Structure formats: structure tokens, C-alpha cells
Amino acid sequence: GALGYGSAIGVKILPLFAPYAAAWYWLLILTGFCQSILALHESHRLKGTALKDPFVEELTKLRGKIAARGEKISMPAMQMEISQLIRQLDQELLPRLTALAVRHHHLGEELAAHQNPRHGRIKPSPPVLRELQQLYNRQEAVMKGMVQEVADIDATLTGFTQEDDETYLVAAMQAWKKNLGTRWDTLKELLES
């Protein structure tokens, strides 16, 4: 970029390039065009590197379903609990799951590269590969557990929207909230370790 613009200015003002001085603006236009094409290419390349993880996509869908179900519930206490749940999904679980999915994806790429080393590359020892595979499996289990928990919450909310007995709903909501807190604490510990 700077070289092209500098060349255009140099052609315009330096006596050495006087024969080309009348066409200096073409060099400027060509440089701008090339920079635009490069910027467009880079923006599309970066969009293509966005990780599409099935666990993140499923959790995002479930979050939308839970929010929609929350709007159908008429009890203010339940609406408040669901809005807190949505906030927790948005601020804690989705970012953590996304970060874990990125690490998991990179670990999977590394494992594949180690298991099929290129010519001249030394393969890690079997115990190290087993440890990496176990880590990969643990990460996947944690991600699956997070999504399963939210799927269970979504299904529970389906039941809540069908109930008319407020006493049952309050008792069920309290048990649900206690169970949810315990499971999410466990998931957070696994993610932070």
C-alpha cells in the first residue's frame, strides 16, 4: 500500500520519472484497487475461520427456545427466573462453551497432525498421545454435558407451560433451580481446570 502510494507521488514529483508524470494518477488508482481487493480477500478469509461448532450452535438454538417459552409463561416469578437463566446463558455459558470449543477444535487438529506426522516429523510417544486424547475426550464430554443440561431445562420448561397448578410449579421450579445450580457449578469447575 505505502509503496504504491509512494511510487505514485514519486512519479508525479521526481524529475527521473518525468516521462511518466502524466499517468501518475493511474498508479494511484491501481494501488487503491489492489488494496481494496486485498482487504476484501482478507475479510472473507477471516469470516471463513469462524468456528462452527455443533455444541455452540445447539446451545444457541436452545437459548432461543427457552427465551420464547419464557414469554409464554404468565407467572412473574417464573418469568424472572427465566430472564436470569437467559442472562446466565448469554454472559457465562455461551462464552465459556465457545472458548472451550475453540480449544477443543485446535486440540483435535493437533492430535490429527500428531497421529499422521508428515515426512521427517517425529511422532509423540504413545503415552503423550493417550493423554492428549483423554483431554480431548474430557473436553467433549463437558461440552456435551453443558448442552444436555440446557436441553433438559428446555424440556422442563415445556412441562411448566402445560401446568396449571401453581403450587406444583413453585415446588418444581425450586427443585429445578437447585439442581441447575449444582450442575452448573460442576461444569464451571471443569471448564476452569
From the structure above, extract its key features:
mainly alpha, 6 helices
Describe the structure.
The protein is built from 6 helices and no strands. It is elongated and about 90 Å long. The protein starts with a helix and ends with a helix. The protein has helices at 2-13, 24-48, 54-72, 76-115, 126-162, 166-192. It is mostly helical and 193 residues long.
Give the structure's gist in a few sentences.
With 193 residues, this protein is mostly helical.
Q: What is the share of helical residues?
A: over 70%
Average pLDDT confidence is: 78
Please state the CA-atom Rg, rounded to the nearest Å.
28 Å
Task: Profile the largest sheet.
Answer: none
Please write the string of helix (H) and strand (E) elements. HHHHHH
Distance between the termini: 45 Å
Sheet/helix structural class: mainly alpha
Low-confidence stretches: none
Please report the number of helical segments.
6
Strand content: under 5%
What overall geometry do the principal axes of the alpha carbons give?
elongated
DSSP summary, beta strand count: 0
